[in-house]
Amino acid sequence: MKRHRNLPFFVPFAGCTFRCAFCSQEKITGRKDPSPEDELAAFDRMMETCGDISDSENQIAFFGGSFTNLPRERMLRLLRRAKDWMDRGFAGSIRISTRPDCIDREVLTLLREYGVTDVELGVQSMDDGVLLASGRGHTANDTRAAAALLREEGFRFAGQMMIGLPGSTAEAEVQTAKEICDLGASEARIYPTVVFADTPLYVQALAGRYTPLDNLTAAKRIVPCMEVFLERGVRLLKIGLQSSDSLAEAPFGPRDGSIGELAAGMLYARRIADAVGETARGRSLTVTVSPRELSKLTGHGGAALDAICAAVSPASVKIQTDESVPPYLPVCSVG
Hints:
It is built from 12 helices and 10 strands. The protein is an alpha/beta fold.
């Protein structure tokens, strides 16, 4: 089976009619809106450098803004160029990200015509109070309506959610994860709220009206949301923001670009402790995971291993790998 690979092209701020309290797309993506000619040239360069396409199923992905709320000619210009590359065999489909209130049947008809199969919705929260405090400009019902329309029109739906938004709680975030599953999402992303210097949230933080999460707290809040998605069979595409100089320079919030690995390590520690319980106390514990999952147990200074030792007190812990072990389902044995 060929591996799936996204070919991401960022359209920062594009199409956004609201400036959310947390949003600083230029900081996150490091890009500003180009001219039409420069934008298409940049897209072509991205496609030209995508490498060998014989061993992968490529999907063009327009990220960074509300794609379906772009000026119509700009949206169609990008879709036409993407379709040209698809017709040449460089990709099989397109994925876009957008706001829940920027979806209707007309735009979905256009998207389908150009080969879009996957739509990522910036859900962020299903709590109307949190959405209002965050300046999102849409409601939870807008998300419910958009998800229903995507299902009716045959699109796959991915839900993007955030933890640590103004007014949010751990309980509200778990409920958001549950509702994303209930709405029929097949995939999800979980992002922490990071405070950038040029945002309304930065002003609120300086005034003491908003308290940012630290890395450890954010990771702990992510874990139960991960569990919801994993238990419901929803694929986790991404946890945390991509590491960058801009992220590291953010004045407040969980700025660790590997926060997803930290949260995953916590989840592994919890699942291993639940699996072996008291039976591992004072005995040797062997944990088998996929090679691709190894860093989640051994990274962050061995925090996950420390948590396992604190929870079940084994005499020793041995970590080994096996390609057949699924993610987040460690095989444990006690000797």
